[in-house]
């Protein structure tokens, strides 16, 4: 992944993001969070928000995706049957069309070399 901003994935930066919750990072999604929905969290970082999504959406599937292996390593402490984390590129998602009910990308598009390429991955007519 050639277009990764590495300073954003240093241990000190990842630690500073561990305070994240759905309330302070995705309040706009709260009215839409219903058990059983599936969610992709792009730029999941240390996984704190992603893990809370998994709790709220259970038994729905939640996937956290980040370009930085260090972020995924940090996030891997969160374990749930409906939760997984993976290294990946937001502009070339490894999922079929309509795989998720919701996609969350909090503070992540600015870290992409070509953010428009990631936006092209979203369903036409989606709310961004």
From TrEMBL:
Gene Ontology process terms (BP): methylation
Key words, A-Z: Methyltransferase, Transferase
Pfam families per the UniProt record, alphabetical: Methyltransf_25
Keyword Methyltransferase: yes
Family annotation (InterPro entries): Methyltransf_25, SAM-dependent_MTases_sf
Domain Methyltransferase: residue ranges: 40-123
The keyword Transferase appears for this protein: yes
Gene Ontology molecular function: methyltransferase activity
Protein name per the record: Methyltransferase family protein
Organism: Rhodoglobus vestalii
